[in-house]
Automatic annotation (TrEMBL):
Family: Belongs to the TRAFAC class TrmE-Era-EngA-EngB-Septin-like GTPase superfamily. EngB GTPase family.
Keywords: Cell cycle, Cell division, GTP-binding, Magnesium, Metal-binding, Nucleotide-binding, Septation
CDD domains linked to this entry: YihA_EngB
Keyword rRNA processing: no
Cofactor list: Mg(2+)
Organism of origin: Novosphingobium humi
PROSITE patterns given in the database record: G_ENGB (PS51706)
Name this polypeptide is given: Probable GTP-binding protein EngB
């Protein structure tokens, strides 16, 4: 994509996300999913990676997604309508997936999470892309690799997105970025570009908005 087209997509994405963004529903099981009638972009990441904060930053809302200091609190698929007119079919949907990498969750809860996510990824024909969020302070961890392998197996394309970039020094961020890029090249469904974001400073937010819109329009 050339620079002019990229700037045009960034501006269109800004306008889309400044319009309608509404919470639709929470689905604790597949039978509660909304009808697959519009494109969907999912967000996934380890518990406490900053997923809710990034979702709020992308949509320009302060409390669209609830942030929590309790890792693993979200155990449902949360759907948000983006674009269009309220009460009608949206342009696309964002899906906030349950955080993974539970430190203290009972094995039964972990298995329920894996089944819900695996079944969703394998059977959701309108899922265009998944964003896998990686904490800039830690890089790719074993739970991230497990998620990436799950996406590879389901043949669902995904982007790796570094979060909390403001929390590390520039030299450390460059090192983590290079390592995550190298990891991305090992995975069949991973997008080769690794995006860098900070919900606190706004770094990379316009670009990831544009990426989400572009993926939804594929």
């Amino acid at each position: 994509m050339n620079e002019d087209n990229n700037l045009e997509l960034i501006e269109r994405a800004r306008k889309v996300f400044s319009g309608r963004v509404d919470f639709l529903l929470s689905a604790p099981a597949l039978k509660f999913l909304p009808d697959p009638v519009v494109p969907e972009i999912a967000l996934s990441g380890r518990s406490n990676v900053g997923k809710s904060s990034l979702l709020n930053a992308i949509t320009g809302r302060k409390a669209l997604a609830r942030t929590s200091v309790t890792p693993g609190r979200t155990q449902e698929l949360n759907f948000f309508d983006v674009g269009g007119v309220a009460g009608e079919i949206p342009d696309f949907r964002l899906v906030d997936m349950p955080g993974y990498g539970f430190a203290k969750a009972p094995p039964k809860v972990v298995e329920q999470w894996k089944k819900l996510v695996r079944d969703f990824l394998r059977g959701r024909v309108v899922l265009k892309r998944t964003l896998v969020l990686i904490d800039s302070r830690h890089g790719v961890k074993p739970p991230d690799l497990e998620m990436m392998e799950m996406l590879d197996g389901a043949a669902v394309g995904y982007r790796l997105v570094l979060t909390k970039a403001d929390k590390v020094k520039a030299s450390e961020l460059d090192e983590v970025h290079a390592k995550v890029m190298a990891e991305a090249r090992k995975h069949s469904a991973a997008y080769p570009e690794v995006m860098i974001t900070s919900s606190e400073t706004g770094m990379g937010i316009a670009e990831i908005r544009a990426a989400v819109l572009g993926d939804a329009e594929l």
